[in-house]
Amino acid sequence: MGLGIARQIGSTPGMSLSFVTDLSLHDAEQAARASGQSVARAGGAIRSRPVPATCLFHEDAMALLGDTSVEFDVLVEASNSIGMAALYCRTAIERCKHVVLMNAEVDLALGPLLQHDARKGGVVVTSDGGDQHGVLKRMIDDISLWGFRIVQAGNIKGFIDRYATANALVDEAANRYLNPIQCCAYTDGTKLNIEMALLANGLGLLPTRPGMEGPECADVLEVMTLFDFDSYGDSGRVDYILGAEPSGGVYVVGHCDDALQMRYLHYYKMGEGPYYLFYRPYHLCHLETPRVVAECALDRRALLQPRFGRVTDVFAYAKRHVKAGTPIDHGIGGDCFYGMIDANQDDDRVPISLIEPERTHSLRVARDIKKDRPVRWRDLEIPDSYLIRCWREQILMERGSNDE
Q1: 252, 286, 320: which is the final residue of a domain?
Q2: CA-based diameter of the chain, in Å?
Q3: Domain range for 399
Q4: Which H or E run includes 167?
Q5: 366 & 396 share domain
Q6: How far is CA 48 from CA 39, 154, 276, in A?
Q7: Of 286, 298, 305, which is closest to residue 73 (Cα–Cα)?
Q8: What is the mean pLDDT of residues 58-63?
Q9: Are both 255 and 114 inside the same structural domain?
Q10: Number of structural domains the chain divides into
Q11: Given this model, what pLDDT does residue 51 score?
Q12: 228 and 144 in a common domain
């Protein structure tokens, strides 16, 4: 995604890429060159560019983010880290720069904290516009403007295997130009749940059950008969359908019982009502990022933020019987856990986005966890880390605001 963003920014009128960083210097240079600009490796104290339009590349993000001679307007965070991503975002915010989060994991884990920082700094932090939650938000903005009540926002998912492992997906990942860990997070449904939780927290929606319903069907039009919309009351829901066409799309169900409008909607071949289906058969990820960048920089406008707080989260569940003492390779996309969205009930379940081993912090299972059981804090040995410190800071911030 970072590579694609670099290319798209380079081809967007009025935009240029200031710098790109990656732990792999080769990948950083490749992305810089994809922008079509002249490039230069950043090194030492950076004080000037060889050419004004030069894109710098480096393997150390903090070296560039912390150097005030390197100018930029918006940071696009597109890594697959969480703790380090939070550090990058907070450093950019301290420099009064806007932040666009293509990184859905840090967006969910620490979105309220980053929003708190952004308000103090007078900048914008927002979800990106190309993943499903961003695409759905744009659709919902239109549908709400037309006067519909949002009943359900949904994702069209092709396949889910909650017990998938990265090792089993090596070939599939290579065919899709993905890291196997990322591919596993898509396959086991964790990424889907994270995206829908971001939308839920932005709009005050809820799932009907942990992990949502996700019925199988052949076509998106079947949505209208698969869910009991009447049972929702006035509460909008998030959900998904599995295996339907158009694959890769998203949908929204809206409610309208205005007799005159229903007459028009029937004429427009939208059905009898009062429930109406709207869908988009694609989402284009990096192609849609520059628009959000422009909205931040030019209009100081966010696309999607957790305006309702953490009304939902994505909690970790065991993929198999995990024994005490087991080292945790990865949280999201790893072999031990999958994630499911649920209402945030202030209990002791562990959000899967907080299970992130770092190079200096190993994680282990402290107690046996049975397959498909939620992971509790007492089940894990989680040492102190920047991510956990940020989480504690966010909890204290939320409790303080609640006390007020």
Answers
A1: 286
A2: 68
A3: 312-403
A4: none
A5: yes
A6: 13, 48, 56
A7: 298
A8: 96
A9: no
A10: 3
A11: 52
A12: yes
CATH number at 366 reads 3.90.1210.10
Query: Where does residue 152 fall: left (phi above 0), alpha (psi -120 to 50 degrees), or beta otherwise?
Result: beta
For 170-186, give one letter per residue: b (16+ CB within 10 A) or e.
eeebeeeebebbbbbbb
297-328 residue pLDDT tens: 999 999 999 999 999 999 999 999 999 999 99
Mean pLDDT calculated for residue range 234-258: 96
List, for residues 105-148, the tens digit of each pLDDT value: 999 999 999 999 999 999 999 999 999 999 999 999 999 999 99
The H or E element that residue 361 is part of is: none
Contacts of 150 (CB under 8 A, 6+ apart): 140, 143, 144, 203, 205, 236, 252, 253, 254, 255
Could you give the CA distance from residue 375 to residue 204 in angstroms, rounded to a whole number?
A: 25
Which residue is it, tokens 């994809």?
34
Q: For residue range 314-367, what is the model confidence (pLDDT) as tens digits?
A: 999 999 999 999 999 899 999 999 999 999 988 899 999 999 987 666 799 999
Confidence (pTM): 0.95
Percent of the chain surpassing pLDDT 70: 96
Please spell the DSSP secondary structure of 168-202, one letter per residue.
GGHHHHHHTT--HHHHHHHHTSHHHHHHHHHHHHH
Q: Are 88 and 117 in contact (CB under 8 A)?
A: no
Residue listed under structure tokens 């931040």? 296
Tokens of 379: 């089940």
Q: What one-letter code names the amino acid at 23?
A: L
Amino acid at 267: Y
